[in-house]
Amino acid sequence: MTVRRRGFAAAVLAALACSGCAEQAPEDPGAGPSPLPDTGGVGPLDALSRRFGRVRARMIERGYGEELGVARLFVLEGEGLAIASDLAAGRCTTLVALAGGSVRDLRMNVYGGEGEEIATDHVQGEAALVHVCPQADEGVPTLPHYVVLLAPEGSGSIVAGAFGSAPGEGSGFDALFDGILAPRVPFRAVEEQLARSRSLLRARGLLQVGEPHMESVAEGETIRTTVPMEPDRCYVVVGRGGEGLRDVDLVLFDEAGAEVARNLESDPEPTLEHCPAEAGRTTIEVSAYEGAGALGVMVLAGPVPERGGETAVAAEEATEAPPETPPVAVADPAVALMGLSGALAQRGYSDPVVVVRDGYISPGEVRTRELMLAPGCSVLLGVAGRPETDLDLYLADEAGRPIDRDTGIQPMARVRACTETPSVVRLSVKAYGRRGTYALAVLRAPDPIRDVQGLRLEEAAAGLRERGYRALETLESDLDTGETFERTLQVRPGTCMAIAAAGDVGVEDLDVFLRGLDGALVASSSDPEPYAAVSRCAGDAPETLRVEVVMYRGAGAVQMTRMEGTP
């Protein structure tokens, strides 16, 4: 660390006069001086504290293990924070600070008791470090100093630590903050990803709300933005992480602060759809759960307000060709439907009964038909002829009460129903994108499946069975919204364990998480579905995991199947 001596700068004098100035006396004279104020420690174990914990571990590894004190402070953009400190004479003190919030540049200087500059920080970014070794005559235990922190860019919390060492101890500070600080990265890759998503969503009639928000973030940091939302529109929130970000989480909160939607899947490209019941401002939080880099978030809304019973997008599409001219489909939807049906037939489902082979549908249009379902359980499939078409299905009983729906952004959809007697249901089809064809079919579920929960559990476990997993045991629990079923299980060496879980008709959203005994998340499934499945493979040694099945929304009986397979 470069050491220089010069006059006391005016900016530093202003900092020393600030209301945040504090003087700290040693708590225990026998233990040596504490260069930092007593703030009660680092506070909650948030992302900033966890990041500082990584810095502390590296300091210990490098031979600077004598921790003299740690404090949590707050700094405002452009304002200084000065701390009057007594540093040990004849010893070395390393002061390390790490900032959170919007701070993107943090600086630290150490001044002597007369105002002369002793050391200055040269770390780029939201961290600072100085290393000083005050010399004094024999019999002088401490010397007065001032530690000044300044945030030229951004405001936020700071965790600062002081470490003591003898002169010449330790292996240096090169790369101390590697992988911990927010990287200085361009946003081009994130902008391109958001642009691709915007093009796809515009095809289904959604329009961008405001401008995308992008920042460079460190691991654990969060971007927050607030968007007004109306009850007559649906909103799609898109989060995209650039290079270096391996896992991005997306959560929405309503005006009262209650969580209304989330995507915690282990990928850097989360997307959420939210259709609010009432007007209000929705807070969007997109977080860097794993990794660091450029992070962006974008909001789109749709469908476009209707004009005379037809959406604006549909009206614009209609100008491409006369309404009586049928569009040319790029694929036969019935062929794709047969392919899906064949995959279900291998799982024990019946041959499909085709309801619609080549129907036509325009963007925003809804087509509804009544069907008779035989007693038992059935799956209703819909497939669009164009791969860029988003097809949604809505299933209701004869009185119009909802039974099931599939509104995923893809050209195929499926809904499920179980009846005790022959029953009439209403199946509605809605499309986004371009005009094209679609096909519908009904398939009977395998005889052992007698209820909706069985259908859901079969869907959750199907992919695992295809990979060779076999069922070992069945677990059951009744859960209400927010409640969690927990159990500790062991994965045998050289094997894989999986958990498939599904709820009954009262369950709307069920999530499954696997965690290590230290609480670290190792696998998760948190799609907005009433069923979920996760798996984990062990190496040469057994691995003990905690299984968490969370009722995110709804209430009712939950059935879980523990399965085992091989890598």
Helices and strands in order:
Layout: H1 10-16, E1 22-23, H2 47-61, E2 66-75, E3 80-88, E4 92-99, E5 105-112, E6 117-120, E7 127-132, E8 142-153, E9 156-165, H3 188-202, E10 207-217, E11 222-229, E12 234-241, E13 245-253, E14 259-263, E15 271-274, E16 280-291, E17 293-302, E18 306-307, E19 310-311, H4 312-318, H5 333-345, E20 353-361, E21 366-373, E22 376-384, E23 390-397, E24 402-406, E25 412-419, E26 423-432, E27 436-444, H6 452-466, E28 470-479, E29 484-491, E30 496-503, E31 507-516, E32 521-525, E33 531-537, E34 543-554, E35 556-565
Parallel strand pairs: 1-3
Antiparallel strand pairs: 2-9, 3-8, 4-7, 4-9, 5-6, 5-8, 10-17, 11-16, 12-15, 12-17, 13-14, 13-16, 18-19, 20-27, 21-26, 22-25, 22-27, 23-24, 23-26, 28-35, 29-34, 30-33, 30-35, 31-32, 31-34
3D architecture notes:
- With 567 residues, this protein is mainly beta.
- It has six helices and 35 strands.
- A five-stranded mixed sheet has the order 1-3-8-5-6, with helices on one face. Strands 2-9-4-7 form a four-stranded antiparallel sheet, with helices on one face. The protein has a four-stranded antiparallel sheet with strand order 10-17-12-15, with helices on one face.
- A hairpin with a 2-residue loop joins strand 18 (306-307) and strand 19 (310-311).
- It is elongated, with a radius of gyration of 30 Å.
- Mean pLDDT is 82; it is low at 1-31 and 304-330.
